[in-house]
Amino acid sequence: MRAHRIFVAALVALLLILSQSVASALPRLLVLQAEEQRTRPSLVEALRFQLRDATEVEVSAQPLPLAPAAQRIARAAATVSASQASFAVWLEAVPELQGAPGFLLYVVGGGSGRAVVEVVRLPAAKDGPDVDRSLALKVSEIVDSALRSAEPDVARALRPAPPRPAPTASVSARPASNVRAGSLGLLLGGVAASPAGNAGAQVGFRLGVGYALRTSALELEWSVSGRLLSPLDIRRDNRRAKIGEQVLGADFGVHTRGRLALGGEVGSALRWLHADGFVGNIETHSSVLVVPVLRLGPELRARLTEQVTLSLAAGGEWMPLQQRFSLAGAPLADLGRVRADALISLIISLR
């Protein structure tokens, strides 16, 4: 039991370190609030959805005071730099724009003191969630262009850009022809392993972290996870072996995109076995064996929500080393070199 606790504690610490290092790699966008504008929570949610694979979206607690545009842009750039963010965005209402109300949409990068300004006209004077989705789509296009060019000055990153007509508040798909910045996910689930050798079946739980890159058609994922399986209890005559097992491994997977996705994974791991031997009720022997493992298998994924995906995977494991334990000079446990496994996991997006 002590070995199990040490393994779980070490695994959790490793996952926390990996989570922080990957999450910190994403650029950040601050949503600023113009003093004269009403708050728009649906705009923040739309931005988080549109930029979920590329940018962390945060709401700034500091409002933008009423001032000329140049002063506001300079103040926003200073806020971006002070917050160690990459971009800031805010809206200013325009009472009458080509016969209908509309907005000026500002996107500014830190340190440049310049901004991209987009004119957005409301069709038929209607405001609501569709408008926020259209605004978020426009911000996504600007940020994506700046990230692709690796240019923090959004005004320079988009130059020379051909003029575009003012967008209307309609929902449209994001361009997905390029590889997006990665997203982090937490893996929580269970595992079942088939009998092998003279050992019985096992069940346990899985905890891990994954990092995914998405293209227009595929999702590429790297993951690190640990598994804690139920102990084996193998008896022969008056001899007995209790074997605990933990597995720490890394996997690479390729999947299609969509609500239902098919794919496969290949990976390697270290299988850590701790055996205690008994003759009668007396413990006479204890040993540890670490075995490399290769794993391959198909996977089916079903997206339950925008943040949660259900994963069903099956596969085969191959161990290049023989896994046998002897007690009192005679063989007792043979764990074989091949076994099948099945995993069910929830993948929770951490953005």
Mean pLDDT: 79
Structure classification: alpha+beta
* Percent in strands: over 45%
Radius of gyration: 27 Å
Might you state the CATH topology name of the largest domain?
Porin
Q: What is the CATH top level name of the largest domain?
A: Mainly Beta
Q: Give the tally of structural domains.
A: 2
Count the E strands.
15
- Strand order in the largest sheet: 6-7-8-9-10-11-12-15
Q: CATH homologous superfamily name of the largest domain? A: outer membrane protein from Thermus thermophilus HB27
Shape: elongated
List keywords for this structure.
alpha+beta; Rossmann fold; 20% helix; elongated
Could you explain how this protein is built, in words?
Helices cover 20% and strands 49% of the residues. It has five helices and 15 strands. The strands form three sheets. An eight-stranded antiparallel beta barrel has the order 6-7-8-9-10-11-12-15. Helix 2 crosses helix 4. The longest helix has 22 residues. The chain starts with a helix and ends with a strand.
List the helices and strands and how they pair.
Blueprint: H1 2-23, E1 28-31, H2 41-50, E2 56-59, H3 69-82, E3 87-97, E4 100-109, E5 115-121, H4 129-148, H5 154-157, E6 183-193, E7 202-214, E8 218-236, E9 239-256, E10 260-279, E11 282-303, E12 308-318, E13 324-327, E14 330-334, E15 338-349
Parallel strand pairs: 1-2, 1-3
Antiparallel strand pairs: 3-4, 4-5, 6-7, 6-15, 7-8, 8-9, 9-10, 10-11, 11-12, 12-15, 13-14
Helix pairs in contact: 2-4
